[in-house]
Amino acid sequence: MASSWRCAWTRWSPPSTRSAEGPAGSSCARASWKEGPPPAWVVKQCVRVPVFVMIRPRGGDFLYSDREVEVMKADIRLAKLHGADGLVFGALTEDGRIDTELCTALLAVCRPLPVTFHRAFDMVHDPLVALETLISLGFERVLTSGCDSSALEGLSLIKRLAEQAKGRIVVVPGGGITERNLQRILEGSTASEFHCSARSARDSGMKFRNPNVAMGASFSAPEYSIKVADVAKVRTLNAIAKNIL
After folding, report:
1. Which of 7, 101, 112, 190 is least surrounded by CB atoms within 10 angstroms?
2. 52-55 and 5-8 as β-strands: parallel, antiparallel, unpaired?
3. What is the pLDDT of residue 219?
């Protein structure tokens, strides 16, 4: 089975396009599913900010088999061995609740590092109950779009979650955040942190291009377009956040 090791939260790019430090003094790097993850120690050599590693054995839902759980545990140990500053994962039961048994087991392997529950949260049956569950389990953060297609559309729930949390867990808005809507989301949610990809497309350097072959599914990204972290976007987002937070 493929490794679950993924780094969160912004897509990895080479050192020449490394992201700027985030508003809270930290940022993280993530690899896409198709491209494969950069090792945490490689990322840490190229950035001066904490690196949180996402543990995810596959795409799809967040209901994991025993075999997948073993992969997740092994990857947590590997991430810690190579200097991860924190871990990110999420797991649900078949009825859309937080899998407390599995999360407890994975948290034990993660400690003493801080842990974020990712956007599996947006697939829960009752987000208000799920938030209390995460707090009781000891998660430091939860990433959410407010159980909607984007953080902007889920803004009212994100605010409600932040108010309910009362500082017991950090509610991090994420999903469709750009320089055009960040101010509205931060002000409307009262959040002190946020998650976004801050990326742009870069054209491939390939001169010969075969138009008849796509390396992946038909809905995958264009073969000769590369998504990279956009330094200008990161700096703009950082400046907006600093004016608000």
Report:
1. 112
2. antiparallel
3. 60
